[in-house]
């Protein structure tokens, strides 16, 4: 254990952020698999409620001695908006898992880094040149290849992962903004608490009493999701989101693996093609943001 601590403290912020983010992606992939399993027997809103409620209960039990201090915030409205973004992302993505294959939903969601570029331009006033706009446009074309609007296989539910990606991008940008202002534990608590409150108001309309086995799955999902979000907050706090973005594509590998092992799902050709286009565009945008900034003229 001491050796691991020395190794961790010896790492730079980029390496720490990358390891935390990859761990987050892995934990979220497990959470997605549990959510897909539960959504076959319960309304997605009940699955979202379970995810937030279990995380909130565990967080409050573990952090009980420090709650008074950790719940103090100078940015209450931003915490609410930020947590609302994540709640919307979770609700849309979990709903999509009920109707779509995991690989398809995940591939569409991977346009999130491209949305971060768009939001960075319009919200933060970041400079985005024509080449990066081309990368964003190509990534959106990749999403359309998977969604296939106008075809016989198109379903409006296929738009849900794209909405989830937009919401998650808003969450990531607001988390980065808060990172220098407040403790990661404060952001972690508000993320869980606000999601729990929102889902508690809505879940009575769709409630189905879960079995003992499903209660266990719901609780474990909350634990996994809670640890993942704590890692995510910490990663965005110490490392630039643009540097971490390409590691997010590991989600495709993890989720496709669980989908094959647990649900016997194999992505079709358009999904593979669209995913390749999205990843290629995302990596290109990341490259321009990471290395293009060294040039005197933005492109």
Characterization of the model:
The chain is globular. The relative contact order is 0.21. The chain has one domain. 76% of the residues lie in helices and 0% in strands. The N and C termini lie far apart (46 Å). α10 runs antiparallel to α11. By secondary structure, it is mostly helical.
Give the rounded overall mean pLDDT: 83
Radius of gyration: 19 Å
Major sheet summary line: none
Terminal Cα separation, in Å? 46 Å
Question: SSE order in H/E notation?
Answer: HHHHHHHHHHHHHH
Low-confidence stretches: none
Summed up, the domain count is 1
Q: How many H/I helical runs? A: 14
Q: How would you describe the shape?
A: globular
Tell me the number of strands: 0
User: What structural category characterises the helix and strand content?
Assistant: mainly alpha
What percent of the residues sit in helical stretches (DSSP H or I)? over 70%
Percent strand equals under 5%
Explain briefly what this protein structure is:
The chain has 299 residues and is an all-alpha fold.
Write the topology of this structure:
Layout (H helix, E strand, L loop, with lengths): L1 H9 L2 H27 L4 H19 L4 H4 L5 H24 L2 H8 L2 H11 L7 H18 L12 H19 L5 H19 L9 H27 L2 H4 L5 H14 L5 H23 L8
Summarize this structure as a short list of keywords or feature phrases.
single chain; 299 residues; mainly alpha; 14 helices
């Amino acid at each position: 254990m001491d050796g691991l601590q020395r190794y961790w403290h010896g790492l730079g912020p980029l390496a720490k952020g990358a390891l935390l983010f990859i761990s987050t992606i892995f934990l979220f992939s497990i959470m997605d698999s549990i959510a897909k399993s539960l959504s076959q027997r319960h309304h997605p809103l009940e699955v979202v409620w379970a995810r937030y409620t279990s995380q909130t209960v565990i967080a409050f039990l573990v952090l009980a001695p420090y709650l008074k201090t950790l719940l103090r915030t100078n940015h209450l409205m931003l915490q609410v908006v930020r947590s609302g973004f994540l709640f919307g992302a979770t609700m849309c993505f979990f709903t999509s898992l009920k109707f779509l294959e995991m690989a398809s939903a995940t591939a569409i969601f991977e346009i999130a880094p491209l949305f971060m570029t768009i939001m960075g331009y319009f919200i933060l006033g970041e400079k985005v040149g024509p080449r990066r706009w081309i990368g964003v446009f190509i990534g959106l074309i990749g999403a359309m290849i998977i969604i296939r609007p106008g075809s016989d296989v198109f379903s409006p539910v296929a738009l849900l992962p794209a909405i989830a990606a937009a919401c998650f991008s808003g969450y990531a940008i607001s988390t980065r903004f808060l990172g220098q202002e407040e403790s990661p534990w404060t952001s972690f608590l508000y993320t869980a608490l606000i999601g729990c409150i929102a889902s508690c108001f809505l879940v009575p309309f769709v409630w189905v009493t879960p079995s003992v086995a499903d209660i266990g799955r719901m609780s474990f999902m909350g634990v996994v999701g809670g640890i993942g979000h704590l890692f995510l907050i910490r990663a965005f706090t110490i490392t630039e989101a643009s540097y971490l973005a390409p590691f997010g594509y590991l989600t495709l590998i993890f989720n496709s693996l669980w989908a094959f092992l647990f649900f016997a799902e194999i992505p079709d050709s358009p999904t593979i093609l669209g995913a390749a286009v999205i990843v290629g565009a995302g990596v290109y945008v990341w490259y321009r943001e990471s290395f293009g900034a060294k040039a005197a003229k933005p492109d």
